[in-house]
C-alpha cells in the first residue's frame, strides 16, 4: 500500500521530498549501500511509520487470553477471557493522532525519544510483534532503495489505479491481515547504469545463498 500511495498525486510530492532528503544525507550517492548499516534519513523512517499506521496490517491484532481477573469500571472481566485489540481504531484515534485519516509522514518528524508507541501496526504491550525491529529495518531499506532507484508513477490505465482507502483497499475485509486488492503502478528508472550496477552487486553478494 505504501507503493500504491507513492503512485498517487500526493505520493509524487512525498517521493520528491524523500529523494531530496536521501540526497541531502548522501550527496556522494552511497545511500544504497549505507542504508544496510545505518538509518540516517528521518523522512524515510517517518514514511515507513505512516505506512504502517495508515494501513494497519493486522487491524484487530491477534487474540490474547487474560490470565487473571481484570476489574473494569463496575465489572470484573474474568480470567480466561479472549481479547482482541482494535489496532485499526487505535491508529485512527483522533485524540492521539491529528487528522488520522490523512496520510502525512510529517507527523513522525521531530518526535522526542520516549514518546511512546508511535502506531499500533505491531500491536502493543508485552506480546507485541517480536519481529518489529527487523521489519522496520527491512521497510526502511526497501523504501529508501525503491525511491533511490525509481520514480513510482501511476499505471497507464486509470482502471488499474490502487484503491487507497484503508478499509476499501482490503481484498477480504474479514481476514486477519490487510490483503490489498490488485493494482498496477509504473516504475520509472532514475539512472539505468546505476541500477544495473546495484543489481549486479546484489547478485554477486547473494550468489552463494
Ligand atoms: C511489517 C511487518 C510486520 C507486522 C505489521 C507485524 C505485526 C504483528 C502484530 C500486530 C502482532 C500481534 C501483536 C499483539 O497481539 O499485540 C505480531 C506478533 C508477532 N510477530 Fe509480527 N509483524 C511483522 C513482522 C514480523 C517479523 C519480520 C517477525 C519475525 C522475524 C514477526 C514475528 C512475530 C511474532 C513471533 C509475534 C508473536 C509475539 C508474541 O505472541 O509474543 N513479525 N506481529
From TrEMBL:
<dbReference type="InterPro" id="IPR050364">
    <property type="entry name" value="Cytochrome_P450_fung"/>
</dbReference>
<keyword id="KW-0560">Oxidoreductase</keyword>
<keyword id="KW-0479">Metal-binding</keyword>
<dbReference type="Pfam" id="PF00067">
    <property type="entry name" value="p450"/>
</dbReference>
<protein>
    <recommendedName>
        <fullName>Phenylacetate 2-hydroxylase</fullName>
    </recommendedName>
</protein>
<dbReference type="InterPro" id="IPR002401">
    <property type="entry name" value="Cyt_P450_E_grp-I"/>
</dbReference>
<keyword id="KW-0408">Iron</keyword>
<comment type="similarity">
    <text>Belongs to the cytochrome P450 family.</text>
</comment>
<dbReference type="InterPro" id="IPR001128">
    <property type="entry name" value="Cyt_P450"/>
</dbReference>
<dbReference type="InterPro" id="IPR036396">
    <property type="entry name" value="Cyt_P450_sf"/>
</dbReference>
Amino acid at each position: 500500500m505504501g507503493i500504491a500511495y507513492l503512485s498517487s498525486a500526493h505520493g509524487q510530492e512525498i517521493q520528491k521530498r524523500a529523494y531530496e532528503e536521501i540526497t541531502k544525507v548522501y550527496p556522494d550517492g552511497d545511500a544504497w549501500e549505507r542504508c544496510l548499516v545505518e538509518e540516517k534519513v528521518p523522512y524515510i523512517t517517518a514514511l515507513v511509520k505512516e505506512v504502517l499506521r495508515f494501513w494497519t496490517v493486522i487491524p484487530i491484532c491477534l487474540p490474547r487470553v487474560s490470565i487473571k481477573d481484570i476489574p473494569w469500571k463496575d465489572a470484573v472481566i474474568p480470567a480466561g477471557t479472549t481479547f482482541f485489540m482494535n489496532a485499526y481504531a487505535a491508529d485512527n484515534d483522533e485524540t492521539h493522532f491529528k487528522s488520522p485519516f490523512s496520510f502525512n509522514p510529517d507527523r513522525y518528524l521531530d518526535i522526542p525519544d520516549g514518546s511512546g508507541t508511535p502506531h499500533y501496526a505491531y500491536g502493543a504491550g508485552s506480546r507485541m510483534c517480536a519481529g518489529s525491529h527487523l521489519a522496520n529495518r527491512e521497510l526502511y531499506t526497501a523504501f529508501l532503495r525503491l525511491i533511490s532507484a525509481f520514480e513510482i508513477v501511476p499505471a497507464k490505465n486509470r482502471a488499474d489505479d490502487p484503491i487507497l482507502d484503508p478499509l476499501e483497499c482490503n481484498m477480504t475485509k474479514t481476514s486477519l491481515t490487510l490483503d490489498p486488492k490488485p493494482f498496477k503502478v509504473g516504475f520509472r528508472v532514475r539512472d539505468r547504469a546505476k541500477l544495473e550496477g546495484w543489481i549486479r552487486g546484489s547478485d554477486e553478494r547473494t550468489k552463494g545463498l
